[in-house]
Amino acid sequence: MLLQISYEARDKLLKRYPKVETCLKCSLCAFKDGYGCYISNYGIGVDGARFSALDTYTYHVFSPKEPVKNPNLWLCVSCHRCHEICPYDVNPTEVIEALKAAAFENGYAPDLIQGEVSNVLSTGFAFPIVQSQQAQRSRLGLPTLEPPALEDLAKIAKKTGLEDKLAKLRKKEVKG
Amino acid sequence: MTNRYAFFRGCFIPVRLPHLEYVAKKVMPGVDVELVDVKGFTCCPEPVGFGIHDKLTWTSIAARNICLAEEQGLDIITLCNGCSYTLKQANKTLKEDQELRDKVNEMIVETGHQFKGSVEVKHFMDVFKEDVGEKRLKEAVVSPLDGLKVATHTGCHIVSPPEVMDFDSIYDPIVLDNMVSLLGATPVDYDLKILCCGWTLMNYGPPEASYNLLSDKFKSMKTGGADCSTVICPQCFYQFDMGQVMASRRTKLGFNMPVLFYLQLLGLAMGYSLDEMQYGMHRVKDKGFEDKLRGR
Questions:
Q1: C-alpha angle A1/A67/A119, rounded to 5°?
Q2: In this predicted model, what pLDDT tens digit does every residue of A11-64 receive, in sequence order?
Q3: What is the pLDDT, as a whole number, of residue A173?
Q4: How many CB atoms lie within 10 A of CB B112?
Q5: A14 touches chain B (CB under 8 A)
Q6: Do A44 and A117 belong together in one domain?
Q7: A2 pLDDT above the threshold of 90
Q8: Cβ contacts (< 8 Å) between A168 and chain B: which residues?
Q9: Chain A contact probe: residue of B12, B50, B56 with most A CBs at under 10 A
Q10: Are residues B15 and A129, on separate chains, in Cβ contact within 8 Å?
Q11: Looking at the predicted complex, does its ipTM rise above 0.85?
Q12: A2 within a domain of the structure (yes/no)
């Protein structure tokens, strides 16, 4: 029996970013000791995937059947070292960020990411304000943290479409 | 002459590490830097968790923050590599790309602000390098950190992309080493100097990978002869402090490598005590390091 493997999503990715085909054959960005991608040297995927100089992180994120569903996309810190070290002038960071954007819009971002976006819009801070830290601020003579300019943030989120994106995601969650 | 800046505290320092905000306020006047509080600053927004997947909102919120400084006629000073990354990228792109600037100004028009491109965004290390200068920093040192060996960690987002950040070499960073030398301490050379702190692995991946990374990094510092490490980013600080406690439990590190925010080292060289620099709030302490500081 002839086996067929569907690579539609990957083909779409290669069509849009033809240069990343190089990443499927090369491993120079996995250079060790911080010169290249640190995930390729230290990463263990959320799904148990192991990365190495031979099985690079860039290969891993550009080669799955559906790249936007890959939970390991979010390990990339956008340090740009893969781009800096690449002799073929591929910019993997740019592609990974585009994949993250698509993943977020379609509800595949981890809860932590969605939570952080919601935190920014609802408190003005990316990280939750906890009472113990407020007490510590007070002990140090620093002002208590108040949510700043939430109205402005809401206006911006409405205009850029982020509010709609979040509403759609919430609807999806309820349905799910 | 005092240099005045709009003080962008960011999120992570005020919410998680307020003692570093306290240290900044205590130390900065000693090198003629005035931190001006500006009402209404929000999250920069944080680049990794927010910025990269919604660039228009990211740039628009950053633009609004920059506008607040513009309205005060002040350049922005940050204490964080991430805030610098976001605000510098937005500032540079919006200054250079008229089409994007018009679009972003349309996104923020209802907030009553408009981006004009009239100020600069500076990490506090940019301020030391460009505005305060070596001479003034040296003058502030009354209690040199003689004999102290320090492993520097510059971090990722303050050096890349280099065409935006324009701070130091990605592969051979020396600015922080020079700043450490100014205080009388000795920066040590170590193999894994440019390795990331592992923030995303700790937060978005299985933390075991981050523990291994941290363990290798601290061992490399120790082999280089460091008494402590120093950082200029709060997330790196958190990784090296709290992260070290967790990594140490798992990997049986066997030694402590205290981390100090560069402003704390500066404060110590200015004559403040470890207590005044809020060392007591740190998770990782080391008697050898403390004795060396007290014995100088």
A1: 150
A2: 888 899 999 999 988 999 998 888 899 999 998 888 888 998 888 999 999 988
A3: 73
A4: 11
A5: no
A6: no
A7: no
A8: none
A9: B50
A10: yes
A11: yes
A12: no
Cβ–Cβ under 8 Å, residues B9 and B79? yes
Element spanning B291, H or E: helix B287-294
- Let me know whether A97 and A144 are in one domain: no
Q: Are residues A147 and A101 in the same domain?
A: no
A43 touching B, CB under 8 A? yes
By residue range, what is the domain housing residue A149?
A: 111-175
In whole angstroms, what is the distance from residue A128 CA to residue A122 CA? 10
Residue A97 has its nearest CB partner, among B16, B43, B52, at B52
Same domain, A101 and A141: no
* A6 has a pLDDT exceeding 70: no
pLDDT in tens, A69-116: 999 999 999 999 999 999 999 999 999 999 999 999 999 998 889 899
**DSSP codes of every residue in chain A:** -------HHHHHHHHHSGGGGGGGT--GGG-TTTTS-HHHHH-B-TTS-B--SSS-HHHHHHSSSSGGG-GGGGG-----HHHHH-TT---HHHHHHHHHHHHHHTT-S-HHHHHHHHHHHHHSSSS---HHHHHHHHHTTPPPP----HHHHHHHHHHHTHHHHHHHHHHHHHH-
Give the residues of chain B that fall short of pLDDT 50: none
In chain A, the number of structural domains is 2
